[in-house]
Amino acid sequence: xxxxxxxxxxxxxxxxxxxxxxxxxxxxxxxxxxxxxxxxxxxxxxxxxxxxxxxxxxxxxxxxxxxxxxxxxxxxxxxxxxxxxxxxxxxxxxxxxxxxxxxxxxxxxxxxxxxxxxxxxxxxxxxxxxxxxxxxxxxxxxxxxxxxxxxxxxxxxxxxxxxxxxxxxxxxxxxxxxxxxxxxxxxxxxxxxxxxxxxxxxxxxxxxxxxxxxxxxxxxxxxxxxxxxxxxxxxxxxxxxxxxxxxxxxxxxxxxxxxxxxxxxxxxxxxxxxxxxxxxxxxxxxxxxxxxxxxxxxxxxxxxxxxxxxxxxxxxxxxxxxxxxxxxxxxxxxxxxxxxxxxxxxxxxxxxxxxxxxxxxx
Length: 362
Description:
The protein is about 25% helix and about 25% strand.
């Protein structure tokens, strides 16, 4: 099965299944001499782990990453880094009813058709549990970005019909202060109450995560196929349940005139800036030094605790009642995943700059 790697210079490959012995990641291209803070890696994993609140799946996993290679006495050697995360709370029997049946809108059917075999216990590689490996790798990417004072922060801006509005005050210090990871107390409370009702109904809902990348240098990205925004889009759309990506003004920009949408240049303290930032910090596929911002839309979780029409492997119609432990909405736990994929993308482009005029110094 291909498709388990991403990146050109800073490249990661994830492995393992949701109900196997564990999951992990191999990171290639990490510069030597980098101080690796394992406690930071595990704090990032804790933000994504299941069972962290009443609005997430109640699967209990410690999600502690163990480094097996590439780090000597707390410092990266330049060799591939391998991190492993043990699975400890599998309930594989919860999925026995899926051995010959397919969940609507899940990967069950297409995996079976493409490979002729599938791991029906938790979905195998299609499970969102795979993203823990990305978060571990993303933590190392964040350690590199910290040297440049590049900051990545994401938060939940929408859950179902409950969304932040232009009038809602945003306080980023509140993001990790509530289980919704929403930067507004009142709206976070509304979102939590909304999700609790959805969960009681045995249903699920989608949501939107907003992400910002601050202090990005000018010059990341390249024309045509290596555009920074294109790589960010691929990274975000590789996340389970992601269904939409927009950067800068996005779809709202289609309603504007060019005279209003153009980001006009000016100089402040000898630095070139733009008066507006409808470009989202990227022009022509290359970062312009302004904040990069984008939104990622996530669909409702496919597995719901209600009877649904489906088919089995004999292509016979059946009534399916799903079992297991699942999130009513992925976005609260997907915030660190979005940040991790953004960090991996930015670091990869930073390291590609080594061969250009404006190469960074690690």
